[in-house]
Design goal:
488 residues, mainly alpha
Length: 488
């Protein structure tokens, strides 16, 4: 094979190849390390590998779209999703440092699994073949099952891992059967060939809608769409918080990327059939997520239901089904990475490290602006941005998605989205009110809970995320040009 052609093919998966080599290096270093001080070295090496992955993504950013052996493509949308996932990965590694004893003792396994999950997530955004899509889904899912139960001394962590594994395995079977039906409908596993066959009137169109329905179960589980969301709060609360912070962003970005590319590349001719059911799911997801979040006392569970509601917002972009909508979704995920990871970083900074049974109740945030003004200010920025208040990044994420939906003729869906944003403002602002306008507890467990701060790396994540949320909000046009959608 010609060397230039080989390079052009291999460069499609350059970021994934960089991380794959990095995982092998990480495991070799872990085997050769001595003593108990290896975890900081492995964490630093993991961050370096992820930064190299970001560099590889930027290196191929301006190249024209190229497909590798009919299985993966490198285009603007794939590169945008990669950037979101890699940023979430860097934050996840930094938040993991000095967090749990098991991470300290088994840093090599923990960080290797995290990098493998990132590889699978990035492949989801590049996949143009149903087989590659399923392989990518299983790569990151299997890694996350283990990471959720990594703190083996915590019953809650083990419970979270088991729930995630059992329900995830169940959802994967729906995904496989749905893929099989699409293969039967289009006579191929390649997205473009499925579209060409069905658009020309060939194949077996009667299998398309059942296939979509089954695939929707698999994707709905991964992105926490209602009614496939029941695992989310328990897993988010039980898993180690750095893992929760990472998966809350990375899983959503990867699964939505795969969902968008499949529906808009393989099945655009059936848009009228699948858009309406997805619109109903978007309404249910936004409404159930926000109304249930109103009742939560745990910050982690509140953020879990908040994430469900945000999944509904992103689904509006898929309902619109245009290139502008997919670009808006990529920008939304980009802003969400900083908002959500930053909020979880504050939770980590305020957690009492009591053997893994970690949680922060909303009542424990009362008056912390007096004791930790910087953390309170950062948390206020994240809460205001998540609620969609201008001029922060979250406002422009929602605005672009809603704008694309209105232009595509889904104004009624946008109205429901705006009403749900108003509902979400209540529970987000409730945290801000507690931090700034309620008296600080001076005695008892709440004071002790707030007396332990996380490592400097966690505070670094808080600072970077807060600055990013403000800067993206002040210069949204700069970042919308970077986040590109399908067909752009």
């Amino acid at each position: 094979m010609d060397t230039a052609l080989l390079f052009d093919n291999a460069i499609v998966l350059l970021p994934e190849l960089v991380l794959a080599v990095g995982v092998m290096v990480l495991m070799i270093v872990d085997i050769g390390r001595r003593g108990e001080n290896g975890a900081p070295l492995l964490a630093g090496l993991s961050v370096a590998i992820l930064l190299l992955g970001i560099g590889a993504s930027l290196l191929i950013w301006g190249r024209p779209p190229a497909e590798y052996l009919g299985g993966a493509i490198s285009d603007g949308f794939a590169l945008s999703v990669r950037l979101v996932i890699l940023i979430a990965g860097v934050f996840g590694v930094l938040l993991s440092r000095n967090y749990l004893p098991d991470i300290e003792r088994q840093g090599g396994a923990f960080y290797s699994l995290q990098l493998l999950a990132i590889i699978g997530m990035m492949l989801m955004g590049t996949a143009t073949n149903l087989i590659v899509l399923f392989i990518a889904l299983e790569i990151f899912s299997l890694a996350l099952y283990i990471l959720c139960g990594f703190y083996r001394e915590s019953p809650r962590s083990i419970e979270a891992a088991m729930k995630y594994f059992l329900l995830g395995a169940f959802a994967s079977t729906f995904f496989v059967y749905g893929s099989a039906l699409l293969f039967g409908a289009g006579g191929s596993t390649h997205y473009a060939r499925i579209h060409e066959t069905l658009a020309a009137g060939g194949g077996n169109p009667s299998l398309v809608l059942p296939g979509i329905a089954l695939l929707l179960v698999g994707f709905g589980f991964k992105v926490s769409l209602v009614p496939f969301h029941m695992w989310t709060p328990d897993v988010y609360q039980g898993a180690p918080t750095p893992v929760t912070a990472f998966m809350s962003v990375g899983t959503k970005a990867a699964a939505f990327a795969g969902f968008f590319r499949l529906m808009m590349t393989a099945l655009p001719s059936f848009h009228d059939q699948w858009a309406a059911p997805l619109a109903i799911l978007a309404v249910l997801t936004m409404t159930v997520g926000n109304l249930t979040a109103l009742r939560q006392s745990s910050v982690k569970r509140m953020l879990a239901y908040s994430g469900i509601a945000h999944a509904g917002n992103i689904l509006i972009a898929l309902v619109a089904g245009t290139g502008a909508a997919s670009s808006a979704a990529a920008f939304y995920l980009f802003t969400y990475a900083f908002m959500n990871a930053g909020a979880f970083a504050v939770v980590i900074a305020l957690e009492k490290k009591d053997g893994g049974e970690n949680d922060v109740e909303q009542s424990s945030l009362a008056g912390i602006a007096e004791k930790f003004p910087a953390l309170a200010a950062a948390m206020a920025i994240f809460m205001l941005s998540l609620s969609g208040i201008p001029p922060l990044a979250g406002f422009f994420g929602k605005f672009l998605v809603f704008k694309a939906a209105v232009e595509a003729g889904w104004a009624w869906l946008v109205v429901i989205g705006v009403l749900n944003s108003a509902i979400s403002a209540y529970y987000y602002l409730r945290i801000v009110v507690a931090m700034y306008f309620q008296p600080l507890e001076e005695e008892g467990e709440e004071k002790e809970r707030l007396s332990v701060l996380a490592s400097r790396s966690s505070l670094f994540v808080v600072t970077v995320a807060a600055i990013a949320v403000v800067m993206i909000g002040l210069q949204p046009g700069l970042w919308t040009g970077v986040m590109r959608g399908l067909g752009q």
